[in-house]
């Protein structure tokens, strides 16, 4: 998927900002953000557009009948006209105790509301603070002139690896280049010791996104080889190396 397309980046950023991008798709989008400036810009633009929806609503005082209804439900309605003198005294005493209890409950609710407000403010501050993003690692892969011949052209590429090592974007430095006709171009992670690991077949002319859990683990360089269509049949490089870039951390 070409995440450099503005239409695709804007669509994914909108779904991410609105919260409709969920599950693995949302996690994959978050992993791609460090390596894609276009995705980050689109996401920032959408978040700014939606900021007005998070503005607080002015407080509105409820009408008196609302409070009267709450008191009636909590303490019951009394008909003072039908009560005797002693009953009136008892009712006054009960009412006083009810008012005290009511204020105690109100204080408890206010305390709980205050704690909830403080928690909401703390969460808001945490969400407002930008999450530290590790800068991408850029590897320039120089052309290997020794690969020229038999219809194979040297070519240069640039690999941008996210700081967390979970995504890589490979782009050719020359537009419209073709390394080899009727052949595949395969990307390899080359360790300091041992056999290289295949990262899959990539495009010769367009940007390619590679997703792995540990692209940088035991990787000293990246290399591109020419292979049969579909990639190396043996799982190891078989064709000439057309481009190499050393990883420097």
UniProtKB/TrEMBL annotation:
Residues 226-249 are annotated as: Disordered. It comes from Aquabacterium commune. It holds the Pfam family RskA_C. Coiled coil: none annotated. Residues 112-241 form the Anti-sigma K factor RskA C-terminal domain. GO terms for biological process: regulation of translation. InterPro entries: Anti-sigma-K/W_factor (IPR051474), RskA_C (IPR018764). The lineage of its organism: Bacteria, Pseudomonadati, Pseudomonadota, Betaproteobacteria, Burkholderiales. GO terms for molecular function: sigma factor antagonist activity. This is Anti-sigma-K factor RskA. One of its GO terms (cellular component) is plasma membrane.
């Amino acid at each position: 998927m070409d995440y450099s397309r503005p239409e695709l980046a804007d669509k994914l950023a909108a779904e991410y900002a609105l919260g409709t991008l969920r599950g693995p798709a949302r996690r994959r989008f978050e992993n791609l953000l460090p390596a894609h400036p276009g995705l980050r810009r689109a996401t920032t633009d959408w978040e700014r557009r939606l900021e007005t929806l998070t503005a607080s609503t002015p407080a509105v005082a409820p009408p008196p009948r609302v409070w009267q209804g709450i008191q009636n439900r909590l303490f019951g309605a009394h008909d003072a006209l039908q009560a005797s003198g002693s009953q009136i005294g008892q009712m006054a005493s009960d009412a006083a105790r009810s008012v005290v209890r009511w204020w105690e409950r109100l204080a408890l609710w206010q305390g709980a509301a205050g704690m909830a407000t403080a928690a909401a403010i703390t969460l808001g501050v945490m969400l407002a603070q930008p999450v530290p993003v590790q800068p991408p690692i850029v590897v320039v892969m120089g052309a290997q002139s020794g690969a020229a011949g038999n219809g194979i052209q040297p070519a240069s590429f640039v690999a941008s690896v996210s700081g967390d090592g979970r995504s890589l974007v490979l782009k050719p430095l020359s537009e419209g280049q073709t390394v080899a006709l009727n052949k595949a171009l395969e990307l390899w992670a080359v360790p300091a010791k041992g056999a290289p690991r295949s990262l899959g077949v990539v495009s010769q002319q367009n940007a390619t996104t590679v997703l792995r859990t540990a692209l940088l683990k035991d990787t000293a360089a990246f290399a591109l080889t020419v292979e049969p269509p579909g990639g190396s049949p043996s799982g190891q490089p078989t064709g000439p190396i057309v481009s190499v870039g050393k990883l420097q951390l």
